[in-house]
Design brief:
The structure holds three protein chains of three kinds. By secondary structure, chain A is an alpha/beta fold. Chain A has helices at 22-37, 53-56, 83-95, 118-121, 129-132, 137-152, 157-171, 185-190, 218-224, 252-265, 270-273, 286-293, 302-307, 333-346; strands at residues 5-15, 46-50, 76-79, 101-109, 193-195, 198-199, 208-217, 229-238, 276-278, 360-367, 373-380. Chain A is built from 14 helices and eleven strands. In chain A, strand 5 and strand 6 (198-199) form a beta hairpin. Chain B is built from 17 helices and eleven strands. Chain B has helices spanning 24-39, 63-66, 87-100, 120-125, 129-137, 146-152, 156-170, 174-188, 203-207, 236-242, 260-265, 276-289, 294-297, 309-317, 326-331, 348-351, 355-371; strands at residues 4-11, 48-52, 78-80, 106-114, 211-213, 216-217, 226-235, 247-256, 300-302, 385-392, 397-404. In chain B, helix 6 (146-152) crosses helix 7 (156-170). Classes of the chains: A alpha/beta, B alpha/beta, C mainly beta. The complex binds zinc ion.
Chain lengths: 381, 410, 152
């Protein structure tokens, strides 16, 4: 990659119900970020908005966000997928040399929505799955969880342990939506089944949230911040939609995305070189599954890793020190929040969840059923 | 910055009101197949894919996910772009940045719309559904608020304000809208991928169509079409190996303004004919392309004109003629395929509108003119540089692409 | 004014849109097959894999699947989940009774078909069980004709 791109700042917010409008949320995030950096909207060369028309209940949802995002009479485009992809688009625009700064704003308000799973129902094939009404996001995740556990002979208890670790981290994170203290694996195991083996606390909570992030070219980044976080590598991939044709216990598209990101970043041995990972695991089993695909956990060693504390904040490879998506999953913004959480770690600003050594981090975002489409960033200081 | 070329174009065999024979992914795959045929490339040559459509029109969400197997995308980076009417060009711009960033070499852009499967008026109304619902909840009579209802109601309502304002400022008359609509329907008759074709169209004939909302007549309005367009872009190094003919991207730009409806609600009505984003985006594109005098240097223009008056209005906004001059060029026949400044030889959006493709088709049509491959609707003059314009959002978002017949010098 | 000081109205949107999805050439063959109580798939000429239901493209090979094949009515339950909830119009509601959803393999080369599995206690389900298709009494070429699978 010629030239460098840095993340120079972010603002984020999430809650079960933010009691706000999309427009005001967008404004508060972007205005707040500009104030943090001491710049004005005209100092932003291009804006990438990331939202989903179905989620927003509005056709061309970016038109009402252009103004609040500070893009009035300026350059703006819209990505409609997980926020990590919006960061990648912003990086490309900066790498072109045409822009020095790019604002990424992503938001999703499902927490306060009457029908929080509706937009995923519409994201199934129109002429089959939506007609048979058998497939949905939760039962496909359950099928994936089952084959993953079966592949290595893990018990359902592993899911409780993963969720307990994530929820414990989330409880200490001021930016998370689901902050419940004192939830151990017994409490997780006592939550109701959705689709076996997945219980309520193994699944992401519908969340309201958003994130604004400013990226800049190397030269501009050094003017704007003393603590730039560099985008070292980017990778993306997609696999087939049909869950009946996929190896659900692995995630080949995540592996491919990670390989591409590592190759760009010059990371040869991710297990040893990466200090922490913020992974969009929407369901407990996806955290080790995706971490294995990204070469951060040894395959078949998930039980040992979680029980020995290797994946905890103080462990060898902290996974989701923020609590990850089990602590909040505002669709579209979710992956961008993972990036922002990784930035907090790399800047040493993660408070009670700060990991020891934080020089190289991985942030991951996903779209589709059972993580059909994946995007991976490697970040460093 | 690296040079980028358009090296392959694929359309569905037809753009029509209803494709009853195929489902959404099957229809898209036809355009993908044609783009591979056209370029001589294979799926293995493609590094990344951009996908765009306006999914609320068909009531489908994130179709790139469940169409993944049909667009040669497995194992590749795929980016979904959606900006309303400009989606097709915004997606093409994303492909451009994939390449100029140095990260990818060959990128395929897939756009489609299958309007017949949903209700386009509902899709458009969806832009301001929250406002309308809020008004209903507050007991405001929406039908009484004709401006409000009209803006959302299929956009023809809001557009009538734009057309009235344009006529008042430009000195053009409704007969000029009739004439430009007739010209484009005649052009469309020569384009195998156009939807509404009438080789015999005349201003008089268009003038007989019913008035929808003054000054917009039925004959001034685009159809809703089913169709898909695929375009393959490549870096200069790859293009040299891949294609003997190419159209080169010299500049891309875009600009957005405030949502007009928001102002309508607050009672402050922005003139919908002002279109500052078109002025700003075109100036930026000229600067990026090193074009000093677009009137002299641009040979051909494709305007995004969901409504016929927009061809004239936007020609002025993008500086291809003086304000109030476009209808005079039309009177002199200069906008015809045989004219000095041919416009929308394809028939424009007013003849064919499968919305996800519409802004992209402006670019692919410019590319065909530059490569001399437009067949029956090839314009008489030689086209060295062409400008493609996209318009949409809530009447406040403009995209511009400038193409040329050779790579841009560094 | 901060976000929490705003006044809100929360209008429910009283709209139910209708869409006319064309099912295309391949799904038409599938549903035509249902009229004769047949389960059809399409075979890829590249990898020889069979997609059920049939479709035009094999994304792995980027090849058109041009061969239709009839699949056996009996297969293996490869994976399953017991549902305790139902998703209805985007909302999560408790299910009346736990129910079984399975991925069924009808041929070693065929993709897994998602279907309801009935006729056994969900707690008794095991991967590898043999199951067979159970059709509605009256078949009419509709998605619901293939009602569920039951132990063979
Ligand atoms: Zn195959």
């Amino acid at each position: 990659m010629e030239g460098k791109v840095a993340i120079v700042g972010f603002r984020m917010m999430s809650a079960p119900d933010l009691v706000t409008s999309r427009e005001r949320l967008t404004f508060e995030l972007t205005r707040g970020l500009l104030d943090d950096l001491g710049i004005d909207r005209v100092d932003v060369d291009t804006t990438i908005i990331d939202s989903n028309d179905f989620l927003d209940g509005r056709t061309i949802s970016n038109v009402f966000l252009d103004g609040p995002a500070g893009a009035y009479l300026r350059d703006e485009s819209k990505v409609e997928m997980d926020g990590v992809n919006a960061v990648i688009y912003a990086c490309m625009r900066i790498l072109s040399g045409q822009y020095r700064t790019a604002m990424v704003v992503a938001l999703g308000l499902t927490g306060s929505q009457v029908s929080p799973y509706l937009h995923i129902e519409y994201a199934l094939s129109a002429h089959y799955d939506r007609q048979t009404r058998l497939l949905n996001e939760l039962n496909s995740a359950a099928l994936q969880a089952r084959v993953y556990l079966a592949k290595y002979g893990y018990s359902e208890e592993l899911l409780d342990e993963i969720a307990a670790q994530a929820l414990g981290n989330a409880a200490l994170d001021p930016y998370q939506a689901r902050r419940i203290s004192g939830v151990g694996k017994d409490e997780v195991a006592a939550s109701a089944y959705y689709y076996e083996p997945l219980r309520e606390l193994h699944c992401y909570p519908p969340t309201d949230g958003g994130c604004a992030m400013l990226l800049a070219s190397e030269e501009r980044a050094r003017e704007l911040t003393d603590k730039p976080v560099w985008v070292l590598g980017m990778g993306r991939s997609i696999e087939t939609f049909y869950i009946g044709e996929r190896d659900l216990a692995a995630s080949p598209s995540t592996a491919q995305a990670a390989e591409r990101a590592y190759a760009m970043a010059g990371v040869k041995n991710p297990g040893a070189e990466v200090d922490l990972a913020e992974i969009s695991a929407l369901f407990a089993h996806q955290e080790p599954l995706l971490a294995e695909a990204m070469g951060l956990l040894e395959e078949g060693k998930a039980e040992e890793a979680y029980r020995s504390g290797d994946t905890s904040v103080a462990g060898k490879i902290p996974l989701n020190p923020s609590g990850g998506a089990l602590g909040g999953h505002p669709i579209c913004a979710s992956g961008l929040i993972r990036v922002a959480q990784a930035v907090r770690q790399l800047r040493g600003e993660a408070g009670e969840n700060q990991v020891g050594k934080a020089e190289i981090a991985v942030a991951h975002g996903q779209d589709g059923l059972c993580a059909q489409q994946n995007a991976v960033l490697v970040l460093g200081v | 910055m690296r040079n980028v070329a358009i090296v392959g174009i694929g359309y569905t065999p037809v753009f029509v009101s209803k494709r009853r024979d195929v489902c959404i992914p099957e229809m898209i795959s036809e355009a993908v197949e044609n783009a591979f045929k056209d370029s001589g490339l294979t799926p293995a040559d493609i590094d990344a894919i951009i996908f765009g459509n306006m999914h609320t029109f068909e009531g489908v969400n994130l179709p790139h996910l469940w169409c993944a197997d049909y667009i040669a995308s497995l194992g590749k980076p795929v980016m979904r772009i959606a900006t309303g009417g400009t989606t097709g060009m915004a997606a093409l711009h994303a492909a451009y940045y994939h390449i100029v960033s140095g990260l990818h070499d060959v990128v395929m852009v897939v756009t489609y719309e299958k309007h017949s499967e949903g209700d386009s008026q509902v899709g458009l109304l969806g832009i301001i559904t929250p406002e309308i619902m809020a008004m209903l909840a507050l007991g405001i009579d929406v039908t009484g608020q004709s401006g409000m209802g009209a803006i959302g109601g299929g956009s023809a309502g809001g557009i009538s304000y734009q057309a009235s304002s344009y006529l008042a400022h430009s000195g053009a008359g409704i007969e000029h809208i009739d004439a430009i609509a007739a010209m484009e329907r005649r052009n469309a008759a020569k384009n195998p991928y156009a939807h509404l074709k009438d080789p015999e169209a005349t201003a008089e004939k268009i003038a007989q169509t019913p008035l929808v909302s003054y000054p917009i007549r039925f004959g001034h309005i685009c159809p809703t079409s089913d169709g898909a367009t695929v375009c393959i872009l490549a870096s200069e190094e790859k293009a040299a190996k891949l294609a003997d003919r190419a159209a080169w991207v010299w500049a891309v730009s875009n600009c957005c303004s405030d949502a007009t409806t928001g102002n309508l609600i607050e009672g402050i009505i922005t003139d919908p004919a002002e279109q500052m984003p078109a002025v700003i985006a075109s100036r930026q594109a000229y600067e990026r392309a090193g074009i000093e005098d677009p009137k002299k240097e641009i040979d051909y223009v494709e305007i995004y004109n969901g409504f016929a008056h927009q061809t004239l209005m936007f020609l002025e906004k993008i500086g291809m003629c003086e304000l109030g001059e476009a209808h005079k060029l039309l009177e002199k026949g200069e906008l015809e395929m045989s004219g000095r400044l041919p416009v929308n030889a394809s028939g424009g959006v007013v003849s064919t509108n499968s919305i996800g493709t519409s802004a992209m088709n402006r670019v692919t049509e410019c590319a065909l003119q530059i490569m001399g491959r437009a067949g029956e609707h090839q314009v008489e003059k030689e086209v060295h540089k062409a400008l493609a314009h996209g318009w949409g959002g809530l009447m406040q978002y403009v995209t511009i692409t400038i193409l040329a017949d050779k790579p841009k010098k560094p | 004014m901060g976000a929490t000081e705003e006044a809100f109205i929360t209008p429910a949107i009283p709209m139910d849109f209708t869409y006319n999805y064309r099912i295309g050439l391949y799904m038409t063959r599938y549903l035509e097959g249902f009229k004769e109580r047949k389960i059809m798939g399409s075979r890829c000429s590249g990898c020889r894999k069979i997609a059920v239901p049939p479709r035009k493209y094999c994304g792995v090979c980027n090849k058109i699947m041009d061969e239709f094949v009839e699949l056996p009515q009996e297969g293996t339950l490869e994976n399953f989940t017991v549902g305790h909830v139902v998703l209805e119009k985007g909302r999560l509601n408790p299910a009346e009774n736990p129910y079984l959803l399975g991925l069924v393999r009808l041929d070693e080369n065929a993709s897994l078909l998602l279907a309801r599995v009935e006729g056994l206690d969900p707690a008794e389900a095991r991967p590898g069980m043999r199951v067979k298709a159970v059709w509605k009494d009256q078949v009419e070429g509709d998605y619901g004709d293939l009602d569920h699978f039951a132990p063979a």
